[in-house]
Amino acid sequence: MSEFTAFHRGGSGSTLVLLHGFTATWQIWEPIVEALETEHDVFVPTLPLHAGGPGLDVEPGLQSLLDATEALLDEAGIETAHIVGNSLGGYAALALATRGRAKTATALAPAGGWAADDPALNQTMDFFQEMHGMITLAAPHVDSLVETPEGRAQAMQFLTEHPEVMPKELVAQVVLGAAGCVDAVDLAEMGRTANWELATEAIDCPVRMIWGTSDRILAWPTAAARFRESLPNADWIELEGVGHCPQLDVPVETAQLILDFTRD
Q1: Cα gap 221→6, rounded to integer Å
Q2: Mean pLDDT score of the chain, rounded to an integer?
Q3: Are 218 and 85 in contact (CB under 8 A)?
Q4: Quick one: three-class SS letters along 201-220?
Q5: What's the total number of domains in the chain?
Q6: CA distances to 55, 56, 62 from 69, in Å
Q7: Prior bond of 60 cis (ω within 30°)
Q8: Where are the beta strands (DSSP E) in the chain?
Q9: CATH number, residue 237
């Protein structure tokens, strides 16, 4: 974890926070950070219990993870901000909005939208637990893995539909960051039993939901079922042929969707 920094901050303007997904680090936002910094003071932390991020002083759980994420804003001197998140970070963005911390909330394929009886929740946690073992085995060979288009495609197959647009250095960062999330198996087990319901009626800021139709981790539209019911007035955007991380697949379009929504 010493290879990873805890956060990035740059740019000027109104504050915008980027929250990454499960087993990622702040670097997964690199393709769009520079564009966002043209209009915003951009704060990009690595979440607690992820590679380079802080630990927890309490028993790990969904709520304690959210509390610790909110504490990162406090430590950075951020009272409210435009909050953008992907996957687990998308759920955190919506959760922070329920706590009054968001000027706007933009969620890219957020976790937590499964219907109450959807078996995909357990299947998703199974996937992360199995993948962590494979990524840990692959990490020592990451330099050779990222040297070929085939290797990069294999490494990124569940996150993006267009790995060819990713520089090999970023692919390596993603692999090493996932391997460095040493608590991944326990966190996935936590996610299996967590209460993912959100008091969305408490959200009083504009919400934009963005989902790729080719998402292989949180499949559209079934993984959005709960949010489609509880956030019917959100601005819903489907990205045709885009995977789980739109910032990797279509960085220019994703940055523009965020800038258009967060412009003061």
Answers
A1: 33
A2: 96
A3: no
A4: HHCCCCEEEEEECCCCCCCC
A5: 1
A6: 11, 10, 11
A7: no
A8: 7-11, 14-19, 40-45, 81-86, 102-108, 207-212, 235-239
A9: 3.40.50.1820
